[in-house]
């Protein structure tokens, strides 16, 4: 069997691990546009902030590829897929790569709506290691940065830049930052934490036009008419599935590549995983793109297992985020706001002055969402209960206590859970 | 593989397992210094439900398919050939993704060193068997194959 993986991040690494659980010898080829070994993409902000060095960036070291017999083709780009002949064409090369099973794990790419006055070469993004290195170098020369987008990426870029002594203004079109991944209380706390660090956050507004003088960016004009002095603009509105390689193929896509529970696409020998794919969100009850590291790894692993011939379904896809801003750790899973008041119940415990917030959302006594701020310990127990759709009626009052643990379960359930959770999947 | 299992009927909630763990993983190996000076976070926790008088010590289950490994954004957590799940704290960036992922709630934050910490079955300390098991005064912890 010959496996080809396009992409070399969490999903690709997961896939190699999955394939090798079943097939110890089949040839694996990884083709990546980037020139690096798999690296910790979320850590590019720590790199920008100077918290870590390049040596700490690798997600998997060279030994991982060697040990698993992976042939790495770095700095190589797939231009198109010929699904009937099962081969890949590479950009700028006549080399043709044949596959028996293919995994598309090309991830996401920044969403870049046109902004008047902002030329393509002036656009800064913050999703790759090269972006981070470029920004780090640039941060020695610039003083005032406008970040368009107050999501996870935009705020992480902001945090890195203030460490470098740069004045940062974040523009968020929604009424609050982090609205896609966290609830309104968490947003308020984080917004305040940034304010205390000197970052200006403007909500309900965005950049309308970028003004240049003598070829250099000097200010941003906002929709509201406000003017913000700046010498660089980072666009961090969001990422979208990077489905470019499929453009000339007949693989079914919506926003992302459509996959089933086995990570198979509409072509039975092609799989997709990670930020490029649209999997089934178990709490939302429909397919969506979930650009989340953990999900990418798991989807990749499951794809790998199936590619190697063992049927294994993955149905526990959940949105989840764990991140720290301005020393305030926050975690969320599933719904962060109740979709409606009739079916969903929200329970909270807050001490907002001390940045403490806990929220859980239930439907029919089953956890479907949560947010934790500062006191995040043992959040994983909630994740586990959510993934397994456990009825929590017996200990619902204890769920938000800081000492909530397995000791609050019934004896039978505790014994069962300690015995069965996380056994080998193959 | 051998793991540490609690017997909750025997647990008196004394917390000596935590003290032993912190001491074992300290530089000084001194029971007082480990706690007061080095501020070592014990890698196990006595899970308590005061109302119901339930208590038992819980540490990393060393899962066969660990959620923490899947969640770790830096590749700092791995399962060794011996089945023991270890955190390479040099590579931990304190994102707490593992805490979000662990269904047993047994990974802890070390606020001083700014890394995640969890049971390593005392392999890092060259000890014969886990220190918590030896320290338990009522044999409420066993280290065995199941």
**CATH architect. name of the largest domain in chain B:** 2-Layer Sandwich
CATH class of the largest domain in chain B: Alpha Beta
Structural class of chain B: alpha+beta
Biggest sheet features of chain A: 5 strands, parallel
CA distance, first residue to last residue of chain B: 8 Å
Low-confidence stretches of chain B: none
Order of helices and strands of chain B: EHHEEHEEHEEHE
Helix-residue proportion of chain B? 10-25%
Low-confidence stretches of chain A: none
Q: Measured on Cα atoms, how large is the radius of gyration of chain A?
A: 23 Å
Return the domain count of chain B: 2
Number of strands of chain A: 25
> What percentage of the residues of chain A does DSSP assign to strands (E)?
25-35%
Q: Strand tally of chain B, please? A: 8
Structure description:
The complex is a heterodimer of chains A (426) and B (146). Chain A has 426 residues and is an alpha/beta fold. Chain A is built from nine helices and 25 strands. Chain A is globular and about 60 Å long. In chain B, the strands form four sheets. In chain B, strands 1-8 form a two-stranded antiparallel sheet. In chain B, 51% of the residues are buried. Chain B has five helices and eight strands, in the order βααββαββαββαβ. Chain B is globular. At the A-B interface, helix 7, strand 21, strand 22, helix 8 and helix 9 of A face strand 2, strand 3, helix 3 and helix 4 of B.
